[in-house]
């Protein structure tokens, strides 16, 4: 009996799935965003869909089955400093993408993609155009929900407990924080349209069914390190273990500033643990327990039993991978959404937040000691790691399910909130409250006058 049921189910599955054309656009992303999308592309390909995947980076080795890569070389200075990113970079990137002719080529294709997945970084200039080459769109978002996405999805966002993307606030805010938070949210408004967003976020907040959370999609159990000097360095670290230092893929190690570099150098000379430091060029005067590397398999190193602490910049992937592997962290947030993540880390008690512009070597040493020894922090790290891993199915399955759902139901417009049809006055019910206030005033005035009249009448008698 069980067999029959399985078979019937399988047949239905076969009928239901067809091979679709899917486009993934990640033209301007740091590598940390590709890491999140790679497993989605791979799983879609293995299910028989044809995936065209545009990204500045290619897969290590060959692309997965049914995935066609377009390696798109973006404007290079992206990888300089954060200041550069915000200058005139945005328009330059868009111009370059238009000049590449890719969008025009897809627009001229007879057959459209069934769905276009667009990374949310700097892609506003693609959003008005995706209809030319796609039936529906899904936004891939690797950070807290920004005002543009909130607006596009008409997502209820109570400013009272949803911190703005770049602020170091938690979901519990003081009056002044709520004041600043509200000003930031209401002063950043964008308008656009889409069918579905995929996202992940820390704090409980209202969502609509158009937001699918796939946090931790890039995390996977660590595999043993290949034989190498790095592996030997780690395994010879004894009971003291080792510390990993990486400030992410956007910014090269040398851009973190003189103060932090020299404080770290001095601090590392005073600790027993070994240190692996992701750094692109040479640092002079390092103590013997420190090794710099240009690249390393971060997930596998974080999963090594000898790791004690992860020092990072508060980037979402780093914070999540650290939590996944139950590693306490020390965050030096530098820009963008990093302060928000760093404050969440210290707020949850799973790590420590420090200021990279003023930190001293003593602070670093004492933070490393606390992060590697404090039993309370260990308990919190274990607890929140379990919470983080506890999903009904692997996040990649969730992502692929919803991507197929959007294709199956032609953009799944039935999931869209009616809030999009309302203007701000209607949405915040200002018209309704206004009318209620008016009625109350009228009734109050009438009452007042009639009481006055009655009193006068009786006084006159
Ligand atoms: C690639 O897609 C085709 C259908 O388009 C499918 O038959 C095939 O199994 C897929 N390849 C792999 C390796 O999954």
UniProtKB/TrEMBL annotation:
Recorded superkingdom: Eukaryota
GO MF entry, a single one: UDP-glycosyltransferase activity
Pfam families: UDPGT
Record's signal peptide: 1-19
Keyword hit for Transferase: yes
Keywords assigned by UniProt, alphabetized: Glycosyltransferase, Membrane, Signal, Transferase, Transmembrane, Transmembrane helix
UniProt similarity note: Belongs to the UDP-glycosyltransferase family.
The protein, known as: UDP-glucuronosyltransferase
Organism of origin: Strigamia maritima (European centipede)
């Amino acid at each position: 009996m069980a067999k029959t049921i399985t078979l019937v189910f399988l047949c239905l599955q076969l009928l239901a799935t067809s091979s679709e054309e899917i486009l993934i656009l990640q033209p301007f992303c740091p590598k940390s965003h590709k890491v999140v999308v790679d497993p989605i592309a791979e799983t879609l390909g293995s299910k028989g869909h044809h995936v065209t995947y545009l990204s500045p980076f290619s897969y290590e080795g060959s692309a997965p089955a049914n995935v066609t890569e377009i390696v798109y070389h973006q404007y290079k200075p992206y990888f300089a400093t954060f200041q550069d990113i915000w200058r005139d970079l945005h328009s330059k990137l868009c111009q370059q993408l238009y000049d590449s002719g890719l969008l025009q080529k897809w627009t001229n294709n007879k057959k459209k993609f069934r769905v276009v997945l667009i990374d949310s970084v700097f892609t506003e200039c693609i959003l008005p155009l995706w209809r030319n080459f796609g039936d529906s769109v899904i936004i891939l978002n690797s950070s807290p929900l920004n005002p543009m996405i909130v607006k596009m999805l008409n997502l209820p966002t109570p400013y009272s407990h949803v911190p703005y993307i770049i602020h170091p606030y938690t979901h519990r805010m003081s009056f002044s924080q709520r004041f600043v938070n509200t000003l930031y949210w209401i002063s950043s408004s964008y308008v656009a349209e889409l069918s579905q967003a995929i996202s992940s976020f820390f704090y409980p907040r209202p969502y609509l069914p158009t937001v699918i959370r796939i946090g931790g999609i890039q995390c996977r159990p660590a595999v043993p390190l290949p034989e190498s000097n790095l592996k030997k360095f780690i395994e010879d670290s004894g009971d003291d273990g080792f510390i990993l230092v990486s400030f992410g893929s956007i910014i090269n190690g040398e851009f973190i500033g003189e103060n932090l570099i020299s404080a770290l150098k001095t601090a590392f000379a005073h600790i027993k643990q070994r240190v692996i430091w992701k750094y692109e060029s040479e640092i002079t005067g390092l103590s013997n327990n420190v090794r710099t590397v240009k690249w390393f398999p971060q997930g596998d190193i974080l999963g090594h039993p000898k790791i004690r602490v992860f020092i990072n910049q508060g980037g979402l992937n780093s914070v999540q991978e650290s939590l996944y592997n139950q590693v306490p962290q020390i965050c030096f947030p530098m820009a963008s959404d990093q302060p928000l993540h760093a404050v969440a880390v210290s707020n949850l008690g799973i790590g420590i937040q420090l200021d990279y512009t003023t930190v001293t070597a003593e602070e670093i040493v004492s933070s490393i000691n606390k992060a590697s020894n404090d039993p309370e922090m260990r308990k919190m790290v274990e607890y929140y790691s379990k919470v983080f891993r506890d999903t009904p199915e692997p996040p990649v399955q969730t992502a692929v399910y919803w991507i197929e759902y959007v294709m199956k139901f032609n953009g799944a417009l039935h999931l869209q909130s009616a809030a999009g049809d309302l203007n701000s006055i209607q949405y915040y019910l200002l018209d309704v409250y206004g009318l209620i206030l008016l009625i109350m005033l009228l009734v109050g005035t009438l009452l007042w006058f009639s009481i006055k009249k009655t009193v006068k009448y009786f006084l006159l008698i």
